[in-house]
Amino acid sequence: MTAKSILVTGASRGIGRAAVIELIKKFNNNVVAISRTEKDLIELKQYVENDLNGKGKIEIVIGDVTEERVINEAIEKSVKTWGKLDGVIANAGTLSIGTVANTDIDEWKRSYDVNFFSIVNLIKKSLAQLKQNKGVFVSVSSGAATNEYYGWAAYSTTKAALNMLTTTFALEEPDVVAISIRPGVVDTDMQKLIREKGMEMGMNKSEHDKFISLYKSNNLVSADQPAHILASLASCAGEKIDTIKSLSGKFLSWDDPIMISHRKN
User: Fold this and answer.
1) Which residues does UniProt assign to the signal peptide (predicted)?
2) CA–CA distance from 187 to each of 85, 198, 221, 251 (Å)?
């Protein structure tokens, strides 16, 4: 299968980092990785080139996904280096915790800028390449899009909006497969933030205790599990696009039975 060129946001840690590794190690693809965290992103590039023997398989762009420059540079690097862009994994996200009444409006706007409007912009900027190459656009959503959590209104509504964006995008652009994935409760820095700061940020005790319990009982999902799903779906761009056409526009959990062929063995 021809190597694909995939853009990954939020690539330096957690699910994003794991997705980059799966894309290159398992699927032999090329990746443009975006992150604000320069040190971690450079370390990831070195790991790919040295430990995975992936020299020439990764390009990096340091910056915030809300910046026009960052998105433009990432797409340009993919096209200039590998001649195309086949897929996008929109993983970058931010969690704002606080009640509707107590969350500052600027924090609401930041949540929407990162979790929603940056993805709208990424769709618009990548669309020409994706249509040309029978591309795949996979967004990382959340169970919070359909389940209420006290103090999570800003985060939850951005993910609900993202799911409807995915559905509408798929309807409007049938040549591109667009899917939203619920990654589960994953062992990432976001979960660490919830455990350590969730209560003081505005969560209630019963819901906070659930996350603590998942951690203590070792029931958090390993990042490489949903990351493999994301990487497998993105790798279906081009000649394998028909195998996932029926999933376009849907919001699916990483462990949904329909995902069995995309799971990590």
Assistant:
1) none
2) 30, 15, 6, 21
Q: 89 φ, ψ to 5°?
A: -115, 105
H-type helices in 113-188, by residue range?
Answer: 118-132, 153-172
Give helix then strand counts, H and E, for the chain.
9, 7
Residue 49's pLDDT band (cuts 50, 70, 90): very high
Q: Judge residue 91's burial from the number of C-beta atoms within 10 Å of its C-beta, 0-12 exposed, 13-18 middle, 19 or more buried.
A: buried
pLDDT score of 1: 73
Q: What are phi and psi for residue 37, nearest 5 degrees? A: -90, 95
Q: Which of 84, 112, 139, 155 is catalytic?
A: 155
Which tens digits make up the pLDDT trace of 114-167? 999 999 999 999 999 999 999 999 999 999 999 999 999 999 999 999 999 999
Please tell me which residue in 141, 156, 180, 232 is annotated as part of the active site.
141
SS3 178: strand
Segments in the chain forming alpha helices (H): 14-25, 38-50, 68-82, 105-112, 118-132, 153-172, 189-201, 205-216, 224-234
SS (H, E, C) 32-50: EEEECCHHHHHHHHHHHHH
Calculate the average pLDDT of the chain: 95
141 labelled catalytic: yes
User: Catalytic site residue 155?
Assistant: yes
Vertex 90 angle, CA 67 and 191, to 5°: 100
Q: What are phi and psi of 92, to 5 degrees?
A: -60, 135
Q: Which is more confident, 3 or 197?
A: 3
